[in-house]
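User: quick one, sequence for these tokens?
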């Protein structure tokens, strides 16, 4: 469903599909106007270095690279390499800290 929706919106998604691990989950704790997110990373912790590195040229040709912060917890060195590569190619980067 996520892939179909992004394609419909003219976004070229890059997903490594791995059915050996469940998708991530996130509990949201609310207190008055405050919230706290409690993630379980699931498949994100198993994102393979080989898959990401095979997409480096694709990342370098992008206009924008967007990532959620949870990949930094699961694979900080790998995500850092991607952001460095994008920066060296002049690709704008965006990181959401609370999505």
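Assistant:
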């Amino acid at each position: 469903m996520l892939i179909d929706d992004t394609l419909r919106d003219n976004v070229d998604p890059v997903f490594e599909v791995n059915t050996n691990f469940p998708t991530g989950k996130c509990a949201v704790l609310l207190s008055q106007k405050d919230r706290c997110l409690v993630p379980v990373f699931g498949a994100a912790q198993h994102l393979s270095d080989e898959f990401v590195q095979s997409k480096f040229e694709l990342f370098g040709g992008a206009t924008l690279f967007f990532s959620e912060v949870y990949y930094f917890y699961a694979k900080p060195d790998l995500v850092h390499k991607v952001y460095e590569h994008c920066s060296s190619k002049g690709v704008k980067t965006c990181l959401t800290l609370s999505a």
